[in-house]
Amino acid sequence: xxxxxxxxxxxxxxxxxxxxxxxxxxxxxxxxxxxxxxxxxxxxxxxxxxxxxxxxxxxxxxxxxxxxxxxxxxxxxxxxxxxxxxxxxxxxxxxxxxxxxxxxxxxxxxxxxxxxxxxxxxxxxxxxxxxxxxxxxxxxxxxxx
Length: 145
Prior knowledge:
Helices cover 3% and strands 46% of the residues. The chain has one helix and 14 strands, in the order αββββββββββββββ.
């Protein structure tokens, strides 16, 4: 009755849902979910998750990840923004920047990029048309006369 307009109740079954992208699967496009997501295949696109993202050892994500928590065993090419804890397992390969509150890196993990810890991550908004954080490089063409 006196709730804010933006205060929407999300059903428990949605919050507890799980999405799995199996090994051998190629998915092109962005994913937004309230529930957990596990990637074992290849994803070309961004992931926005209000819960936990798990990237298995056979996974490869070419895009940005924005989530509450994450555990990475596979490869990521893009920016990883985690509002709570990011765990990089020994087989993890991250080629991109990390912004997280807490970071755990196991021996053997590879990380090439900048890291900012203790930062306040923007609120994860699902279902809104928000400008993508991944910027495409601009290549200037040389004029010929």
